[in-house]
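Anyone able to model this chain together with iron/sulfur cluster?
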Amino acid sequence: MSTSSLPRAPHHDVAPSDETALTSAKPESNDLVLEVKDFSVDYGWGERAVRAVRNVDLDVHRSQVLGIAGESGSGKSTLVYAVTRLLRSPAVITGGDARLFLEADKDIGSDARTLDLLGASERELRSIRWSQVSIVLQSALNALNPVLRISAEFDEVLRTHRRDMNRHQRRARAVELLELVGLNEDRLARFPHELSGGQRQRIMIALALALDPQLVIMDEPTTALDVVTQREIIGELRDLRARFGFAMIFITHDLALLVEIADEIAVMYAGTIVERAPAASLHDAPRHPYTLGLLNSSPPLHGEHRELVGIPGSPPDLAQSLVGCSFRARCPYALERCAREAPPLVGIEDGGRMVACWLHDGSPTNLPEPLRRKASPTARDDLAPRAAKEVRS
Ligand code: SF4
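re: yes, here you go
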């Protein structure tokens, strides 16, 4: 995992390395793991800067799986890598806050419980990577060192963070972790290129769980895999989450896949969140035209196979200043107002749904029919086995 830091815009102070960003502040909600407020990231400086993430609020709770969906370039990976300070220049955090609330029973060499991620020193960031927050990247082949056997990858992570473990204990822990993801001990002696794509990705998941982190970030972890292996890994992740209770941020462009694993989904477009809702509600009854477009362009989870319809047009140029709704040029329901004013993300309906769209002016009868559907009482747990069964049949 890279440990390079993301520079912040000049108007933010960066904590000197001998100061601490750890405090004893408590989260407003006891089960909050990560809180991100009004967070913005640019690539580059000045007039030519690309506004990749704009004023995003996000929170993740213990044991929750938060899915982040959107097309390439929507800002979903930039947001998460910036929050965890893993992006390189020319990315610049131009505003906002990000706080990690630490588990009480983890030894981080301090009694502090809150880490201001944007003010944290490299030492503080190193202490929480792997142990509190770990990341599984899209391409395991690139993430694993091609000249190291798998045993050495596990040994390095455990040796760095668990000085109390001897060589035999580290080996035993590696075997235990491989078993968790359904792999035999003999894989430890292999090099990455001797394993299948699914096996490599399972090894990345096992490495991510090596130190019992409270938050695991999955960045398109199954994108490079065939559809059957994808579904198997999603099922294994669901089981692991239920067993160990870690929270997860799962990033993907595949909204249908996300519904199988996420409790809640945030849909990003042009650097902002345009809809956030419980996963099953969002799947059954999207309220933002972009969410509807994403669902119409994904194979259905169950029922009849239908023709897929892509979203016409392209996302806006984020180096230009945006006026009005950023989805306007592609939206079949655009109103005159959409050209002038950007819709805010506001709560609608019960059940914690938020949407940024002027169509939701409080009058449901004004909504186009596809955005008026009722969410069925179907729980995500009912959807997933059907989806897996369809894939395997
Ligand atoms: Fe479409 Fe207007 Fe809603 Fe934007 S605000 S998604 S342009 S209807």
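Residues 1-18, 379-393 have pLDDT under 50 and may be disordered.
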